[in-house]
Amino acid sequence: VSAINASTINPARVLKIDHKKGRIRANYDADLVVLDRDYSVLETFVLGESVYKR
Predict the structure, then answer these.
(1) Are 47 and 33 in contact (CB under 8 A)?
(2) Backbone angles phi, psi at 3, to 5 degrees
(3) Tens digits of per-residue pLDDT, 8-49?
């Protein structure tokens, strides 16, 4: 859990955007990156919309 928090909610708190970023929750921006086992980007979502797909 702490590794996930280190790359999600904690940076959002530091940047003072944790009211809309850093969690997968209703009314939060859905900005996500889907990675494969080699950490290559498979798909990217911005505001819930797919903007890149390999």
Answers:
(1) no
(2) -65, -40
(3) 999 999 999 999 999 999 999 999 999 999 999 999 999 999
Cross-strand partners of 49 = 46
Rounded (5°) CA angle 28-36-32: 10
């980007």: which residue's tokens? 41
Least Cα distance to 46 among 25, 16, 21 occurs for 21
Let me know the angle formed at the C-alpha of 53 by 18 and 29, rounded to the nearest 5 degrees.
Answer: 15
Domain extents in the chain:
25-54
Q: Please, where are the H alpha helices in the chain?
A: 2-6, 9-14
